[in-house]
Each structure stands twice: as structure tokens, then as C-alpha cells.
Specification:
Length: 404
């Protein structure tokens, strides 16, 4: 239910989306205090419930499902049947927001498209998430994160150059485009709710994974648009800053992120290469970018002489940004991660408890993360249907008919 002390207390969200981008948006809204009702298919539920292993101990809940659904209530409704559609419409009548990620036009046959539901609830903020948007030459296509990473350009920028061993395009290690789309969708919903406060009217939000992927190309997009030169893969190096990459040490790799010329001077002093900082080829960042092929091998040779811990201590002492490349066990054992409470443990109806990643937003020193675990399939069906006046006898009939 809504959390009174949180920013979205009193807001009701109907989340009929599946997999990641839509559920990620719903999870963000739940973290902010909204009452998010997750509508799933009877028996099967959200596809991600079955995307395992790993599974939560003693349950059939996949880790993938758990990552995107904290703080919600789960209701099972078969919206392919008229009775299920009627239940959805009853829920819509009491909702502020609806999230969906069906194919373009896919909900019209059920009378659950925006035009139909706007008549029922003019204040409804209806957020559609698709691969290519409501109006596009590709609107009919399904959208998958991996495919969009390729089409939207990020894979042309990620990985080693073709000329190097192991070169070639590489996708992000997490569903980069889905996550960003969920975050953009959350921003869009919040702005629509703010606008509704004054206008009294809802709206239709049209989010496309492809649009978001192009939108987050950031400096690389502007590198191309400004120069006309197509950026290429640089491995762990940066197109606009040098040195800003991974370097091998005696016992592993570290990241060095030199952001300005003064940091470069101190970096060189630690390496006992102070002459590089006054060499006109390397004295400014622009010059270093231009002469990176001459500079980087010299730095690589120097950094290979000492261990990770030795370099980290030396660079930190003079304010040169650096860090180790942590595996996830080290991430969750990191003092910062522990101090900031980024791993949270919540009660779970089947497993007893579940470890989750907390929402990183903090307001007035308090985490914004939801305080209830991702729900079991249909865990809240009875309570939610009670709220819209469906009697126990009616619910029993709906169960027997396979509607809920």
C-alpha cells in the first residue's frame, strides 16, 4: 500500500507491464510511496519469474524477477477474457497511472488502449513502453534490449577495436537500454502527474527503447554530430579524456580517471615521470588525446611495476581518481556499499527473507527504497479485488473460471 511519509503517497499505479523496462518504472514509483498493483497472468505470471536459475532459496522466484518488483502488490487476472478486461477497467477507474509494454495496438482489441480508458478515467496517466514507439516505420516490431543496443549505436562504441585481440562489438553486462527506459518513463510519469495537478487531465506517454538508447549516447553522439567523424571502439579508454582507462598492474587492473591537467601532473609525479607533464605533447588534455598512442604505452610500462594496492594508496594520497575493478562479491563487501545500505534484507512470504539492492535515492538522510519484498504470484489478488467491491463469492467464481 501507499507509504504515508513518501513523496507519492496516495498515488495508485496499475502495472500491466512485463519483463524489465516497465516493471523497473513501476518499482521506482513503488519506492517513492505509490501503491503499485502488478497485474499478471494466472499460473504463469511475469515472464521473468521463470528466467532462472538462480532462484530464491525454497521458492520458484527467479533472481531476475526479484530485481524489478519490490514494493508492489501482485494480482492475477486473465485480460484476454472479457471478465478479466472488466476487472482491469474497474481498477483503472481508481488508478492514477497505468504502465504497459504491449506491442503497438495490442491492447485495443481488449478495450484497454489509451483512447478507451481515457473515456473511463480522463485523469489517467497512461504510459506505453515499446521498442520503437507508437509512430515509427518499425512500430510493428518487438523491441528487445540486446537488439536495441545494437541498432541504437552503443555496441559500436563498446568493446575493443577490431584490430586488437578479442576485438568486436560488445553489449553492456546489464540490460542498459531497458533500465534507462524505465528511468525515463518514471520521469515522464512524475512530470505528467505534476502537470495533471494544474490541468486536471491525464495524458498518453509514448516511450520507445530506441529513442532512449539514442538519447543516452551523450558525449559520443555529440562527438559525431559536432565533427562528422564516426566514433570507434576504444576498449576501456575514453574518446575525450586521456589517461582515463584501465591499466594492468603487477597483480591485476586498476582504473585511472585523470580529469584535468593538474591531476595529470600529480599522476606523473607518483609515476616518477614528471617530465611528461611539461612535454607539450601531453601538457593539456587536448594534446594528450591527440598523442594518446605515444603516451599510453609509457604509462602502461610504469604502472606494471607495482601492485594494485600500492598504486591505489599512492594515487589516493595525492588526489588522483582511481579504483579497483571489483567483482560483485567485493562490491557488496565494500565499506561504502555497506555504509550506504545498498543491500537491503526484507521479509519474504515463502523464503523468510530476501536480499535485494536498495534504491540509491536518499531524501533527508533516509533511503527511498520500498520496504516490502517483490510479491509472490497473485499474493494480493483477494485484497485488491475486495477494494473494488468484488465479493468473496464472485472471486470464487472467477477463480473457477480461470479469470483470476
Amino acid at each position: 500500500m501507499s507509504t504515508p511519509s513518501k513523496p507519492l503517497a496516495g498515488i495508485k499505479v496499475l502495472d500491466i507491464s512485463r519483463v524489465l523496462a516497465g516493471p523497473w518504472c513501476g518499482q521506482m514509483l513503488a519506492d517513492m510511496g505509490a501503491d503499485v498493483i502488478k497485474v499478471e497472468r494466472p499460473v504463469a505470471g511475469d515472464d521473468t519469474r521463470h528466467w532462472g536459475p538462480p532462484w530464491l532459496n525454497g521458492t520458484a522466484e527467479s533472481a531476475y524477477y526479484l530485481c524489478a518488483n519490490r514494493g508492489k502488490r501482485s494480482v492475477t487476472i486473465d485480460m484476454a477474457k472479457p471478465e478479466g478486461q472488466a476487472l482491469i477497467r474497474q481498477l483503472v477507474a481508481q488508478s492514477d497511472v497505468l504502465l504497459e509494454n504491449f506491442k503497438v495496438g495490442g491492447l485495443k482489441k481488449y478495450g484497454l488502449d489509451y483512447a478507451s480508458l481515457k473515456e473511463l478515467n480522463p485523469k489517467l496517466v497512461y504510459c506505453s513502453i515499446t521498442g520503437f514507439g507508437q509512430e515509427s516505420p518499425y512500430a510493428h516490431r518487438a523491441g528487445y534490449d540486446f537488439m536495441i543496443q545494437a541498432m541504437g549505436g552503443i555496441m559500436s562504441l563498446t568493446g575493443k577495436p577490431d584490430s586488437e585481440s578479442g576485438g568486436g562489438p560488445v553489449k553492456s553486462g546489464v540490460a542498459f537500454t531497458d533500465i534507462f527506459t524505465g528511468l525515463y518513463a518514471t520521469n515522464a510519469v512524475l512530470s505528467a502527474l505534476y502537470q495533471r495537478r494544474d490541468s486536471g487531465m491525464g495524458c498518453h506517454i509514448d516511450m520507445a527503447l530506441m529513442d532512449v538508447q539514442v538519447g543516452v549516447l551523450a558525449n559520443q553522439a555529440l562527438n559525431y554530430l559536432t565533427s562528422g567523424n564516426v566514433p570507434q571502439r576504444l576498449g576501456n579508454a575514453h574518446p575525450n579524456i586521456v589517461p582515463y582507462q584501465a591499466f594492468a598492474t603487477r597483480d591485476g587492473h586498476i582504473i585511472v580517471a585523470v580529469g584535468n591537467d593538474e591531476q595529470f601532473r600529480r599522476f606523473c609525479e607518483v609515476l616518477a615521470l614528471g617530465h611528461l607533464a611539461v612535454d607539450e605533447r601531453f601538457a593539456t588534455n587536448g594534446a594528450r588525446v591527440h598523442h594518446r598512442e605515444s603516451l599510453v604505452p609509457v604509462l602502461e610500462a610504469a604502472l606494471a611495476q607495482r601492485t594494485i594496492d600500492e598504486w591505489l594508496a599512492a594515487f589516493e594520497a595525492v588526489g588522483v581518481p582511481c579504483g579497483p575493478i571489483n567483482t560483485l562479491d567485493r562490491v557488496f563487501d565494500d565499506p561504502h556499499v555497506k555504509a550506504r545500505g545498498l543491500k537491503q534484507t526484507l521479509p519474504h512470504t515463502q523464503a523468510g527473507q530476501v536480499d535485494l539492492v536498495a534504491n540509491p535515492i536518499r531524501i533527508n538522510g533516509q533511503s527511498l527504497s520500498a520496504t516490502t519484498a517483490p510479491p509472490s504470484l497473485g499474493e494480493h489478488t483477494e485484497h485488491v479485488l475486495n477494494d473494488i467491491g468484488i465479493t468473496p463469492a464472485q472471486q470464487q467464481a472467477l477463480r473457477e473460471a480461470g479469470i483470476i
